[in-house]
Amino acid sequence: MNHFNEDIIKAMNDGLVLTDTHQTVIFVNPGFVALLGYAPEEIIGRKWLDIIPSENYDMVLEAERRRARGLSDRYEMVLQHKNGEEKEVLIDASPRFDKTTGEFSGTIGFVTDITQRKKDQLALQKNLLRYRLLFEQSPIGVFHFDNDGTIVDCNDNFVTIIGSSREALIGLNMLDLPDNKLVKQLQNALNGYTGFYEGVYHSVTAEKSTPVKVYVSPLLDKDGRSFGCVGIVEDVTEQKQARDALRQKQALHRKLLANIGDVIVIIDRDGINRYKSPNIEKWFGWKPEEVVGTSTWENVHPDDLAPAQRFFAEILQKPRNMGTVECRYRCKDETYKWIEFTGTNLLDDPDIQGVLGNYKDITERKNAEKDREKLQAQLTQAQKMESVGRLAGGVAHDFNNMLGVILGYTELALLRTDDNHKLKADLKEIQKAAQRSADITKQLLAFARKQTISPRKLDVNDTVESMLKMLRRLIGEDIDLVWQPGAHLRPVKMDPTQINQILVNLCVNARDAIAGVGKIAIETGPHSFDADYCNDHPGFIPGDFVLLSVSDNGCGMDMETLDNLFEPFFTTKEIGEGTGLGLATVYGIVKQNNGFINVYSEPDQGTIFRIYLPRYVSTDEAPAAVHPDKPLPSGHETILLVEDEPAILRMTRMMLERKGYSVVSAATPTEAMALAQTHAETIDLLMTDVVMPEMDGGDLAERVTGLYPEIKVLFMSGYTADMIAHRGVLDGRVAFIQKPFSMKDLTEKLRETLDG
Ligand code: ADP
Ligand code: MG
């Protein structure tokens, strides 16, 4: 070996080993020494078979024989390093031949350490396997398509999700799929963009439709060259179901919130609106976004603000505090609605972080409450009028009796006094004063509905017309009296003097309300109200009515006056100018006739009184008796006079006897019955008080009639004839005289009764 060769051999990393034909090692280079850790003298001279593992003997001996025939071999085996470490080596063994004889002279072997390479190879294989498994067993579908869109590989999940077969998928060109959106996305990926697609995928081969999400991403090698794209497919059936369910739930909530009667609200601790359900627009006109973010107090009625805020502060005190408050809430059109707010403190609930509650529209209920209050007030007023009336009536009744006595005796005294007698003037004064008192008492009785009346069928237009002259005189020349009779008026059943009383009182009041010149209008007309109208108009009564209205353009009235108008003795006039009995009288008369009054007035705007009188319905009505104006008539008949008030009894007896009648008088019904039974001659007429302690006049009359079937009866009373006929309205066939009566009244009534 020349030096050149020797240098190469020394410098070689690989090991070099020479054996002779007996496989004895005859040379090793430093590379071989380094490979196995033995010094050259420890190896040279040893048999090759001693160095290699015994399992390789056969293979090595076979190779040796082939080399003797001139063939080379390459094989791998494991050699043991001196320190026990195993070295994987690749051996290239070639035959050597003697240069001179040409005989086979041994083997030259190149030994390369491939331990590291083997390790690397194994690692690489493992890696590849790992990636393959990753690809194969990914819980999602993975597919690879090349630059023209053809699927080159895919995993089993992909096949499963798509619901097709591997054979059908591999080689499929995705750009030919009918789904434009997907194709577009794939093209984007091929152009270098990562994409995302979610849709219902319709399998190409199976009848299966699966909602899938597809991600695609371009694939680049380490030099940046594109080699197609990777796609990931995810079955989103469950996600989609969950999302659909959620969407459905949300839709349900939205519909609930929109269609529930109330408005659902969330208000934070500072009173700022955080949420209003959409139906706030339906109830209040606000769109939720117009109020959310603003202070809730802005829309609360100023009068309700303090209690509402107090309520809110109370709720804020403690988590879960709950409560209800009523207040008026402003609508977009600036009107207010009554709401009931029920709220719960959910500040500690992370989803709410405020007071959660609802607005309930209670406007209708509130209005009903107001109506109820109004009705209650009306009822209270009516009850008050009733008790005042009873009181006034009671006083007036006794008063009336006394005035009867005063008037009667004065009249008798005047009859007995010559015109030039010095007491005559005094007696006249007494009579005048008593008469005035009797007038007042009469008004009180009218208010208390205790006025005695003789109602008859009459036409209101005719009645008013007959009074116009008198009314014009009453109101004076500065005031224009306009009379507008309504057409087609139905008759009413009423005492005409009561219409007179009504008109006089109303016209006098109207006159007093007008300073200087002015106008008073009297109108009539038919009017009907049905139950519906009356429900909406408290105080009105259903039925057919005749309207009698008196209006003026005078000073009008304020609320306080209107509230007290009909009370007896209520007046705004100076002492001596008003008695306060005018409207009380009108009120009593209208009530007695089952009608009602309606007043409309405002300060300085004039006043209108509307009186509704029920129209007459019955047909069997006897015309009222006419009183001819005769000088005091006399008689000779026998009269049984019954009266529990001694003064009146005495006075009446005197009056009767003066006119020629025979009088049998009794202070009680019992006494009267006794007298009637024992009286020798016939009795022509029973004149009796109606209200008496033991027995009322009606019963007495019945009994006496039993004894004297032909007897006539004349009732007298300060009251209406409540006991005889119903509701204070006297039966037209019964004769009646109201206390106090004058001699003229009495004698005329007596003759009328006896001769009738
Ligand atoms: P009087 O006329 O004696 O005061 P009334 O009972 O007739 O008593 O009337 C009561 C009050 O009602 C009157 O004092 C007046 O204040 C008021 N009033 C009645 N009618 C009218 C009217 N037409 N215009 C203004 N005020 C009126
Ligand atoms: Mg008056």
In short:
The protein has 756 residues and is α+β, with helices and mostly antiparallel strands.
Overall description:
The termini are far apart. Strand 3 and strand 4 form a beta hairpin. The chain is rod-shaped, with a radius of gyration of 64 Å. Residues 621-629 and 720-730 have low confidence and may be disordered. Helix 14 runs antiparallel to helix 15 and helix 17 (496-513) packs antiparallel against helix 20 (582-592). It is 41% helix and 25% strand. It has 756 residues and is α+β, with helices and mostly antiparallel strands. The chain has 24 helices and 27 strands. The protein has a five-stranded antiparallel sheet. Bound molecules: adenosine-5'-diphosphate (ADP) and magnesium ion.
Q: What labels would you give this structure?
A:
binds magnesium ion; alpha+beta; five-stranded antiparallel β-sheet; binds adenosine-5'-diphosphate; 24 helices; 756 residues
Helix content: 40-55%
Q: Which spans of ≥5 residues are poorly predicted at pLDDT below 50?
A: 621-629, 720-730
Shape: rod-shaped
Nearest-angstrom radius of gyration?
Answer: 64 Å
Mean pLDDT: 86
Query: End-to-end distance, in Å?
Result: 187 Å
Bound molecules: adenosine-5'-diphosphate, magnesium ion
Beta-strand content:
15-25%
**Class derived from helix and strand content:** alpha+beta
* Widest sheet, order of strands: 2-1-5-4-3
In this structure, how is the largest beta sheet organized?
5 strands, antiparallel
Number of strands: 27
**Helix count from the secondary structure assignment:** 24
